[in-house]
Give the backbone structure.
Amino acid sequence: MHSHVGHLALYSAIVAVFFAALTQRDRREQLRFAALAWAGMTGGVIVLAYLMFPFPR
Amino acid sequence: MPNPSGRDVQDMRASATRTVTALVLGWLVPGAGHAVLGRLGRAGLFFAIVMGSFGLGLAHDGKLALYTDQDRVLTALQVVANAGIGPVDAIARSQVYGDVTYCRPETTDPRYKRIVDTWRARQRSLVSIYGTAYLWTAGLMNILLLFDVWDIAVGRKG
Protein backbone atom coordinates (compact mmCIF):
# COMPACT_ATOMS: atom_id res chain seq x y z
CA MET A 1 0.00 0.00 0.00
CA HIS A 2 1.49 3.35 -1.05
CA SER A 3 -1.28 5.66 0.18
CA HIS A 4 -0.38 8.11 2.96
CA VAL A 5 -4.01 8.38 4.01
CA GLY A 6 -4.44 4.61 3.94
CA HIS A 7 -1.46 4.15 6.25
CA LEU A 8 -2.71 6.97 8.48
CA ALA A 9 -6.06 5.20 8.89
CA LEU A 10 -4.50 1.76 9.39
CA TYR A 11 -1.78 2.87 11.80
CA SER A 12 -4.28 4.90 13.83
CA ALA A 13 -6.62 1.90 13.99
CA ILE A 14 -3.84 -0.38 15.29
CA VAL A 15 -2.77 2.09 17.97
CA ALA A 16 -6.36 2.98 18.94
CA VAL A 17 -7.44 -0.66 19.38
CA PHE A 18 -4.25 -1.46 21.31
CA PHE A 19 -4.69 1.35 23.83
CA ALA A 20 -8.43 0.71 24.13
CA ALA A 21 -7.75 -2.92 25.09
CA LEU A 22 -4.89 -1.90 27.38
CA THR A 23 -6.61 0.86 29.33
CA GLN A 24 -10.34 0.02 29.32
CA ARG A 25 -12.06 -3.04 30.76
CA ASP A 26 -15.67 -2.65 29.67
CA ARG A 27 -16.33 -3.61 26.02
CA ARG A 28 -18.49 -0.54 25.46
CA GLU A 29 -15.82 1.74 26.90
CA GLN A 30 -13.19 0.05 24.75
CA LEU A 31 -15.18 0.71 21.58
CA ARG A 32 -15.81 4.32 22.59
CA PHE A 33 -12.14 4.89 23.45
CA ALA A 34 -10.94 3.24 20.22
CA ALA A 35 -13.32 5.32 18.09
CA LEU A 36 -12.33 8.58 19.81
CA ALA A 37 -8.59 7.79 19.63
CA TRP A 38 -8.83 6.83 15.95
CA ALA A 39 -10.84 9.95 15.09
CA GLY A 40 -8.48 12.13 17.14
CA MET A 41 -5.37 10.79 15.45
CA THR A 42 -6.64 10.79 11.87
CA GLY A 43 -8.55 14.06 12.26
CA GLY A 44 -5.65 15.73 14.07
CA VAL A 45 -3.17 14.78 11.36
CA ILE A 46 -5.47 15.97 8.56
CA VAL A 47 -6.11 19.30 10.34
CA LEU A 48 -2.38 19.71 10.96
CA ALA A 49 -1.65 18.93 7.31
CA TYR A 50 -4.06 21.69 6.18
CA LEU A 51 -2.56 24.15 8.69
CA MET A 52 0.90 23.44 7.27
CA PHE A 53 -0.29 23.79 3.66
CA PRO A 54 0.46 27.57 3.36
CA PHE A 55 4.03 27.05 4.54
CA PRO A 56 6.31 25.67 1.82
CA ARG A 57 9.41 23.72 2.79
CA MET B 1 7.17 -6.63 62.89
CA PRO B 2 5.35 -9.96 62.36
CA ASN B 3 7.29 -12.78 60.72
CA PRO B 4 5.62 -14.23 57.63
CA SER B 5 4.49 -17.83 58.12
CA GLY B 6 5.84 -20.67 56.00
CA ARG B 7 2.63 -20.59 54.00
CA ASP B 8 3.01 -16.84 53.30
CA VAL B 9 6.59 -17.35 52.12
CA GLN B 10 5.45 -20.15 49.80
CA ASP B 11 2.70 -17.93 48.37
CA MET B 12 5.15 -15.06 47.85
CA ARG B 13 7.58 -17.36 46.03
CA ALA B 14 4.81 -18.77 43.83
CA SER B 15 3.63 -15.26 43.02
CA ALA B 16 7.17 -14.09 42.18
CA THR B 17 7.69 -17.14 39.95
CA ARG B 18 4.41 -16.48 38.16
CA THR B 19 5.34 -12.80 37.65
CA VAL B 20 8.77 -13.62 36.22
CA THR B 21 7.30 -16.37 34.02
CA ALA B 22 4.64 -14.01 32.70
CA LEU B 23 7.23 -11.30 31.95
CA VAL B 24 9.66 -13.65 30.19
CA LEU B 25 6.95 -15.37 28.15
CA GLY B 26 5.40 -11.97 27.39
CA TRP B 27 8.66 -10.85 25.84
CA LEU B 28 9.19 -14.12 23.98
CA VAL B 29 5.67 -14.18 22.51
CA PRO B 30 3.57 -10.98 22.50
CA GLY B 31 0.44 -11.50 24.60
CA ALA B 32 1.73 -14.67 26.30
CA GLY B 33 2.27 -12.81 29.58
CA HIS B 34 -1.44 -11.98 29.71
CA ALA B 35 -2.26 -15.61 28.89
CA VAL B 36 -0.15 -16.80 31.85
CA LEU B 37 -2.15 -14.44 34.07
CA GLY B 38 -5.43 -15.89 32.77
CA ARG B 39 -6.41 -13.09 30.39
CA LEU B 40 -6.76 -15.23 27.31
CA GLY B 41 -9.02 -12.92 25.32
CA ARG B 42 -6.72 -9.96 25.69
CA ALA B 43 -3.69 -12.16 25.07
CA GLY B 44 -5.07 -13.17 21.68
CA LEU B 45 -5.97 -9.60 20.77
CA PHE B 46 -2.55 -8.26 21.80
CA PHE B 47 -0.78 -11.04 19.87
CA ALA B 48 -2.76 -10.20 16.75
CA ILE B 49 -2.17 -6.44 17.06
CA VAL B 50 1.56 -6.62 17.83
CA MET B 51 2.38 -9.35 15.31
CA GLY B 52 0.14 -7.69 12.73
CA SER B 53 2.04 -4.44 13.13
CA PHE B 54 5.35 -6.32 12.92
CA GLY B 55 4.24 -8.14 9.77
CA LEU B 56 3.15 -4.87 8.16
CA GLY B 57 6.55 -3.42 9.05
CA LEU B 58 8.45 -6.22 7.36
CA ALA B 59 6.13 -6.20 4.34
CA HIS B 60 6.75 -2.46 3.91
CA ASP B 61 10.56 -2.71 3.98
CA GLY B 62 10.85 -1.38 7.52
CA LYS B 63 14.41 -0.83 8.65
CA LEU B 64 15.74 -3.22 11.28
CA ALA B 65 17.92 -0.75 13.17
CA LEU B 66 21.67 -1.18 13.46
CA TYR B 67 23.63 0.45 16.28
CA THR B 68 26.44 2.72 15.08
CA ASP B 69 29.13 4.66 16.94
CA GLN B 70 28.34 7.77 14.86
CA ASP B 71 24.86 8.13 16.35
CA ARG B 72 24.89 6.12 19.56
CA VAL B 73 21.79 7.37 21.38
CA LEU B 74 19.32 7.34 18.51
CA THR B 75 20.47 4.06 17.02
CA ALA B 76 20.48 2.43 20.48
CA LEU B 77 16.88 3.58 21.03
CA GLN B 78 15.93 2.24 17.61
CA VAL B 79 17.46 -1.15 18.40
CA VAL B 80 15.58 -1.25 21.73
CA ALA B 81 12.33 -0.42 19.92
CA ASN B 82 12.97 -3.25 17.45
CA ALA B 83 14.11 -5.78 20.06
CA GLY B 84 11.07 -5.10 22.26
CA ILE B 85 9.07 -7.59 20.23
CA GLY B 86 11.32 -10.46 21.28
CA PRO B 87 13.12 -13.24 19.39
CA VAL B 88 10.98 -12.75 16.29
CA ASP B 89 13.10 -9.64 15.65
CA ALA B 90 16.23 -11.81 15.61
CA ILE B 91 14.55 -14.22 13.19
CA ALA B 92 13.62 -11.30 10.94
CA ARG B 93 17.21 -10.02 11.03
CA SER B 94 18.57 -13.42 10.07
CA GLN B 95 16.18 -13.50 7.10
CA VAL B 96 16.76 -9.89 6.00
CA TYR B 97 20.50 -9.46 6.68
CA GLY B 98 21.49 -13.13 6.56
CA ASP B 99 22.84 -12.64 10.08
CA VAL B 100 21.47 -11.85 13.54
CA THR B 101 23.22 -8.53 13.91
CA TYR B 102 22.29 -5.50 15.97
CA CYS B 103 25.41 -3.41 15.21
CA ARG B 104 26.57 -1.98 11.93
CA PRO B 105 29.71 -3.96 11.08
CA GLU B 106 33.09 -2.27 10.62
CA THR B 107 34.11 -1.56 7.04
CA THR B 108 36.80 -4.24 7.36
CA ASP B 109 34.21 -6.85 8.35
CA PRO B 110 33.46 -9.26 5.44
CA ARG B 111 29.73 -8.93 6.27
CA TYR B 112 29.81 -5.13 5.87
CA LYS B 113 28.82 -4.90 2.21
CA ARG B 114 25.98 -7.42 2.43
CA ILE B 115 24.45 -5.96 5.58
CA VAL B 116 24.86 -2.27 4.76
CA ASP B 117 23.71 -2.74 1.15
CA THR B 118 20.58 -4.50 2.38
CA TRP B 119 19.96 -1.78 4.96
CA ARG B 120 20.37 0.96 2.31
CA ALA B 121 18.14 -0.86 -0.17
CA ARG B 122 15.37 -1.00 2.42
CA GLN B 123 15.92 2.66 3.27
CA ARG B 124 15.53 3.63 -0.40
CA SER B 125 12.17 1.89 -0.63
CA LEU B 126 9.25 4.30 -1.01
CA VAL B 127 7.32 2.58 1.77
CA SER B 128 10.23 2.11 4.19
CA ILE B 129 9.19 5.03 6.37
CA TYR B 130 5.81 3.38 7.00
CA GLY B 131 7.38 -0.02 7.56
CA THR B 132 9.84 1.37 10.09
CA ALA B 133 7.01 3.05 12.02
CA TYR B 134 5.09 -0.24 12.16
CA LEU B 135 8.20 -2.13 13.36
CA TRP B 136 9.02 0.38 16.12
CA THR B 137 5.38 0.51 17.17
CA ALA B 138 5.20 -3.29 17.44
CA GLY B 139 8.28 -3.42 19.70
CA LEU B 140 7.18 -0.50 21.86
CA MET B 141 3.67 -1.94 22.22
CA ASN B 142 5.16 -5.20 23.47
CA ILE B 143 7.29 -3.32 26.01
CA LEU B 144 4.12 -1.54 27.22
CA LEU B 145 2.44 -4.96 27.50
CA LEU B 146 5.24 -6.11 29.80
CA PHE B 147 4.56 -3.14 32.10
CA ASP B 148 0.87 -4.08 32.02
CA VAL B 149 1.73 -7.71 32.88
CA TRP B 150 3.81 -6.47 35.82
CA ASP B 151 0.95 -4.30 37.09
CA ILE B 152 -1.53 -7.19 36.86
CA ALA B 153 0.87 -9.68 38.47
CA VAL B 154 1.62 -7.49 41.50
CA GLY B 155 -2.06 -6.60 41.92
CA ARG B 156 -1.86 -2.92 40.92
CA LYS B 157 -4.34 -3.54 38.12
CA GLY B 158 -7.45 -5.66 38.51
About this structure: Residues 128-153 of chain B form the longest helix (26 residues).
